[in-house]
Amino acid sequence: MEKIKVLTIFGTRPEAIKMAPLVKELEKREGIESKVCVTAQHREMLDQVLDLFEIKPDFDLNIMKTRQTLTGITNKVLEGLEEVFTTEKPDMILVHGDTTTTFAGGLAAFYQQIRVGHVEAGLRTFDKYFPFPEEMNRKLTGALADLHFAPTIGSKNNLLREGVNENDIKVTGNTVIDAMEHTVKSNYIFETTELNEIDFEHKKVIMITAHRRENWGEGIDNICDALNKIVEENDDVELVYLVHLNPVVKDVVDKKLGNRSRIHLLPPQDTKETHNLMNKCFMVMTDSGGLQEEAPHLGKPVLVLRDVTERPEAVAAGTVKLVGTDVNKIVTEANKLIKNNEEYIKMSKSINPYGDGKASIRIVDAIEKYFGISDKEFEEFKIK
């Protein structure tokens, strides 16, 4: 039997984390020839994940440059993938989520009439500028996709409302949970010395990330002011802020939070460090989408530093709470968890609605059935 060729495409660290377990599952299947193309929309942070999961790309477009624009990224991905597709002629490409690589990859495949599988499909805020450009990237990719791998029933319902055929939607859970099975260790020792010096057992350590475009300016200012207040009002709290390297964020954070007692400002950490920091911390405050899925899996409450989220399932489940960027609201909600054990337990013990570690298996099963190389019935992910 002739193998089908599946080309997995990604370009940023978050995509790589979520696609890595899927690549490993594709490699196991006898009926599939698995190929990997990275665009390197991000470079160093992407390479860390490739090394961690021992993935060697077959193609590397290496497009990253200083102060790159969305237009520039899109053009380079389209041109680079045209050449790859002409050479490889894949039966299907797989793209993930909502990056510019994802949209441009789907568009490049459409131009050559190659089938598109969209992993983490169906997430929506229903506001095209929040988050920007991610909301339109995922929506446009959805219009191009042939198979939609929705992480949750809610994501599936979003796609159905947009007219996607139900037979083309597979509810799989989120592959990031698969990845965490590989990265989180109970006896983990950090490579970053400063993290090993923090007393996670006796201090309430809060992990923070905040860097999204919609928070640039007043949003980051307010977040920093709130963090200062939280530390001032709670002697048993320490903060670990993984500060994005973009100067629009870093300059403000360094100025407002630098050289403060019990506040640790660190650069973005690699995947293992980040996942194990999350596992050891008390709670998470973030404007990241991925952390809203990862932290609940580890039983960590999440305060989301945004006004909207494309991941409402965790809000409904009680593991995540939207607090926006209002200083008083951030401080009030953080103090509830810090000072009230009942509130903390209520959030930390809620069910994680995002996966069971088998999303990659479900996705590859669905691909094999789609191409007729397996007749195994697809078993949809359901929250237990």
UniProtKB/TrEMBL annotation:
NCBIfam families: wecB. Pfam families: Epimerase_2. The keyword Isomerase applies. Residues 24-368 form the UDP-N-acetylglucosamine 2-epimerase domain. It comes from Clostridium cavendishii DSM 21758. One of its GO terms (molecular function) is UDP-N-acetylglucosamine 2-epimerase activity. It comes from the Bacteria. Keywords: Isomerase. InterPro entries: UDP_GlcNAc_Epimerase_2_dom, WecB-like. The lineage of its organism: Bacteria, Bacillati, Bacillota, Clostridia, Eubacteriales. The keyword Isomerase applies. Its EC number is 5.1.3.14. Belongs to the UDP-N-acetylglucosamine 2-epimerase family. This is UDP-N-acetylglucosamine 2-epimerase (non-hydrolyzing).
